[in-house]
Amino acid sequence: MWAELAGALVLDHATAQVAHRLLIEERVTLLVPVRASHPGWLAPSRPRRSCAVARRPPGTLCGLLVDAGPLYASSANRTDQPPAASTAQVREMFGATAGTLDLPDPAPGASRSATTTVRINPDCALDITRTGAQDHANGGPDNYLHLNSTYLHPLAGQAPIQPS
After folding, report:
1. DSSP state of 106
2. Is the pTM of this model over 0.85?
3. Beta-carbon neighbour count of residue 5 at 10 Å?
4. How far is it, in rounded angstroms, from Cα 139 to Cα 10?
């Protein structure tokens, strides 16, 4: 699936490799620019000409969806609002018509954080558009972007990392 997505991005080959490494190694949510002409499954990205991509570790859900194709998902929040952290908060925010799974709410005091969302631009510049678990664990957004400066200049001839 990465090869098909990479061909639809407004990124040169080296920058697309950086994007792929960030997904695999850092497990961030990545905002990538898409071409005006792209596969139909990227149609929801058309208005903003960008697509959010996340790689999740293999597990039960991934196993169930492997043959289903792209999964469109929401971060369960309204624009500029924090994400809902429980089923009750999702229903409060989006109403009874929102599709939800009836799961127990997190234990009081349980730590829960969204992934850091990083935008990669055609010039390979990185911007954090939403702070999250990865940058919090590294002292905040500025420190996290500094740590990731190693991704901006991939070693010549380095083979792309293959998904596990």
Report:
1. P
2. no
3. 20
4. 31
45, 146 Cβ separation under 8 angstroms: no
Amino acid identity for residue 97 in this structure = T
How many whole angstroms from its chain centre is CA 102? 24
Q: Which residues have C-beta within 8 Å of that of residue 40, sequence separation ≥ 6?
A: none
136: how many CB neighbours lie within 10 A of its CB?
A: 14
* CA-closest candidate to residue 23, choices 112, 157, 115, 111: 115
Continuous H helices in the chain: 2-7, 13-21, 60-65, 87-94, 133-136, 141-147
86-131 confidence digits (pLDDT tens): 778 888 888 877 777 776 766 666 665 678 888 888 887 888 988 8
Q: What are phi and psi of 96, to 5 degrees?
A: -70, -20
pLDDT digit string (tens) for 33-65? Answer: 988 877 777 776 666 788 888 876 656 566 666
- 84 pLDDT higher than 80: no
